[in-house]
Specification:
Length: 407
């Protein structure tokens, strides 16, 4: 079997500055075998369909490791990340985690990006009795597999991401609510979970769904889908999207001069590149988010300052979810005072997280028996050229725009 190259990253603190050293190897040597380090294995989609958010997750993990090492490490040991590229393949991600656990001898593992990759990865981790904290597997089916080792490190599962938006629409005067909606989603559990969670709520309040399209993950041409949406003249468009598909869909809708009153897309509008990718016409576009760099949760300011110094820009949601994953693992490790592949240690980590709350940059997290977080996502909207929290009202940074300007 051909295995992916390994990116080994060791994050070290140096006087007056932060130095990151990395090398690419064939992956033929064994695990760290070093009592002074804790090695964490990760497989990420650094190429393929999920590469854009996958790289964001990578940056978040690397920043967390660098921060931890600069501040004493875990249990007084330096953290080393061993990152494999699963190329957005479910088969490859499973073999990657097999390799990390069996051949590399990592002490801990954390999860990849995307529900499609989280499920096979979590299965391997469970087979070997490993704790599995993950940053981006929010679809309902993740929590229907019977995993007892999995914890999703974000505030809410996919079906509930738009709850605050649905509540707001429902409370609007009847003559101001959208009467029709067009829904188009990638055939991806997370994307469909977000879109159809909102679709169900809209239907419950009497909004007619005039377009309901599901497209393959590798779709790049959105002309036909955009034409159906434009022809429907729906008041609202809902995109169950990752990044590039949302950009391509919006560009196709712009070319047809389709102008919805509301436009909501999962994931993509929170990415730093989104505004330039769609030509700067972002005003009023909506997205759910589990994170804002402006929140006053404990440790968030430290995270934002550290990440911004490291990368020259503040973190987005993907980076925050990876950092949060690290915080959750670190809390368990420090509490039970172990971080090694021994089944007894791994079970202690799992048991501790089942019973305790962890303070993170996305807020305090607790989980049910299937690993579902017990929280809610906020709603962001592009307002005056910035992506800002608009719902719920008690956390709002700007007022909700009820009618989206032209894009």
């Amino acid at each position: 079997m051909k295995v992916s190259p390994r990116l080994r990253l060791t994050a070290l603190a140096v006087t007056g500055s932060l130095a990151l050293t990395g090398c690419i190897s064939s992956g033929d040597e064994g695990g760290s075998g070093d009592d002074d380090t804790i090695t964490i294995g990760i497989s990420l989609p650094l190429t393929g369909d999920y590469s854009e958010p996958g790289k964001g997750i990578q940056r978040g993990y690397e920043a967390w490791a660098a921060y931890i090492n600069e501040n004493g490490g875990l249990l007084g040991k330096q953290v080393e990340l061993e990152i494999l590229d699963d190329q957005s393949s479910a088969d490859r991600v499973a073999s990657d985690y097999e390799r990390l656990i069996n051949q590399e001898g990592v002490d801990l593992v954390v999860g990849p990006f995307s529900t499609r990759l989280v499920i096979p990865a979590a299965q391997v981790a469970q087979d070997y009795g490993f704790l599995f904290v993950e940053p981006a597997g929010a679809a309902p089916e993740v929590f229907e597999q019977g995993f007892d080792n999995l914890f999703y490190a974000a505030p809410a599962v996919a079906d509930d991401h738009y709850n605050y938006l649905a509540d707001h629409i429902e409370q609007m005067p009847a003559d101001q609510r959208p009467e029709t909606a067009a829904v188009a989603s990638m055939d991806d559990p997370f994307a469909m979970g977000t879109a159809y969670g909102l679709k169900d709520r809209l239907e419950e309040m009497g909004v007619e769904i005039v377009v309901d399209e599901v497209y393959p993950p590798n779709t790049t041409n959105f002309d036909s889908i955009a034409a159906k949406i434009a022809d429907s003249d729906a008041d609202m468009v809902v995109g169950g999207t990752q990044y590039q598909d949302a950009v391509n869909m919006i560009l196709a809708l712009q070319q047809l001069d389709y102008q919805p009153e509301m436009a909501a897309f999962s994931t993509a509008p929170t990415e730093p590149e989104f505004e330039s990718a769609i030509g700067g016409n972002t005003e009023g576009i909506i997205a759910p988010t589990g994170y804002t760099p402006h929140s006053d949760y404990p440790t968030n300011k430290e995270f934002v300052d550290f990440y911004t110094e490291m990368h020259g820009e503040p973190p987005a949601e993907d980076q925050a979810n990876a950092w949060t994953t690290g915080q959750v693992v670190a809390a368990a490790v420090e509490a039970v005072e172990c971080a090694d592949p021994d089944p007894e240690c791994q079970q202690q980590l799992i048991d501790w997280l089942r019973e305790n709350e962890v303070d993170t940059v996305v807020g305090p997290l607790t989980w049910d028996d299937q690993g579902r977080p017990q929280g809610a996502h906020m709603i962001q909207q592009w307002v005056d050229g910035e992506i800002r929290i608009v719902l719920p009202e008690d956390l709002a940074e700007a007022e909700f725009i009820p009618v989206k300007p032209r894009w």
